[in-house]
Amino acid sequence: MVEALATSPQTKKYLVHFIKKFKLIDFCLPEFESLATLFIPGALGSWAPGRPQPCIETLRRNLYCQPRDTINIAKHPLVYANLPEDAGVIDRIIKRSILVKEVVDVISEAKTYDSLLQSVDKEKLFPILESGKSFKFNIEGIGRKISHKEQVEIIESFGIFPFSKNVDLKNPEIIFKIIENSEDHVIYFGTEVASNRVEEDTFHYKFDLKKRPYLGPTSTDHQLAFLMANQGQVSLGDFVYDPFVGTGSIVLACQYFNAFCFGGDLDIRVLKGYGVGRKTHNKVEGLEKIKKFDIYTNFYHYKMPVPEFFIMDCSNPAVHAQASNLRQPVFDSIVCDPPYGVRARSQKVGVSETKKKRQERKAAEKMEASEEEEVQDDDHDMPHFSMKEHYDVLKVYDDLLENASKILRPGGRLVFLFHTDTSLPAEKNKFPTHPAFEFICSSENNLTKCRARHLITMIKRVEE
Amino acid sequence: MKLITHNILMCNKKGCTKNNFPLRLVVKQYADYEADNAQEYSANLMTRLLEKLDWNALKITVATLPDWGIALPDAVTPELAKDEAFLQSLHMLLVRRQIIDGEMVCPNCERSYEIKNGIANMLLQEDEV
Lengths: 464, 129
Hints:
heterodimer, A: alpha/beta, VC0802-like, 6-stranded mixed β-sheet, 16 helices, B: 28% helix, 20% strand, globular, methyltransferase activity (chain A), DNA_methylase_N6_adenine_CS (chain A), SAM-dependent_MTases_sf (chain A)
């Protein structure tokens, strides 16, 4: 522990600017914390190799320069954090993040532009100016658009800068960044360390559902799927399992990070690519050349490694917990969206003839395949949804946690979506727990006034 | 289905708890993935993979596939784990090759699990759970 701290890189205070996306505001800090621990182990005083129990509280205390509960991304998406003084590490975090926009090394912070200039950290700024490096300015307003005219005025007020010789708008060595938050009138001035500015340039842009040839009715949105992979810290060579693979959206995000991905599903039709998934209606390049649409289609389309798929009942998995006495359980993370009664039910409204036939076939398959209450729900009419269904849904989670506790390695991550409905009694909305897992965080994604889904991250405990 | 998947699957039939791993693999058809559709070779990737493998199960299984013409060593020594040629051949075997058609049979209870279109069906019948 002491050793790990001694060899860890020096940290410094940086400003982290989050993307303010209304639906994903609650995901910003958990994602940032997850990536920080993935790329800077040991640097934050916990999570060091050899340390048995991760302590999320210590991490948060060391990572943020203010108490975490005082951070309000909706009002102020800018947070000071302690990060290693290593542009490479920061760049890795940014390049993989969905919700971090940029990291800035702040030179001054003020309420007005006049005092912004007066309060500059001279020891930081002067060496940059004297270095003769090319630079440009980048000005951004949060909550209001700063007009071009105003931007020019702001830049001109920075008279001490050598504008006559070193400006380079195309390939500057240094980008000076001014961020004005109109919500609480705080202005920051500093240099950009790493950024993710344009969405078209991000790694995840091409995986937008509109750009995929094969889709399902509940395909997970690409940003949410990548957020899930980030919560799972999916990395090169990891073994990752999604027991409810469906049309493969989550496993696609995990596969992007070069893991060995395994997708299981109870429903044979899903894997074979008929009945549930379909060809997209959007214009996708090369769509006309694809002959068959199934769970493999997207992986071939993106020229990605194809995950392993198998048909398996999550409540009774045939995955070896521990094949030999020598090795520990194989999976590094389990990332999934368990089937939820509400979604299955909402699909059923206005049953068409073809759908009815499909349901009959499903019922027939069900007779063979036994249990899995989720599918039975499909075949009942509305009044049949009662205590039993909700009990069954929670049972799915109980089974998931119990089985995950057997096949995840100690320290491995379990990431899943959990639905709540505030119109139901509170005990139905309680997050599932398991003695083998430590709860790390949850992020709320509102669907309707009373319904929401939560992205929950847990870590398999390490025996002390 | 790749051999790495075979390496983590066991028979889960009710009452079948002993000698249910590794499943006896019968290959009727196999093919190799194009380079694009399999994890790219790197020493790091193979090191991670070796940590996960049950080597003995893999060795026994490969020995039952004589037409593949591959003989694996009894154990992966530290020297072998750094041997580029060995790791490359292991990559071809474990990451690029998939079994498209075949079955897996439990050595204990003789329950057969079908592999079709590269997908193993591990689902049990109602009376087997």
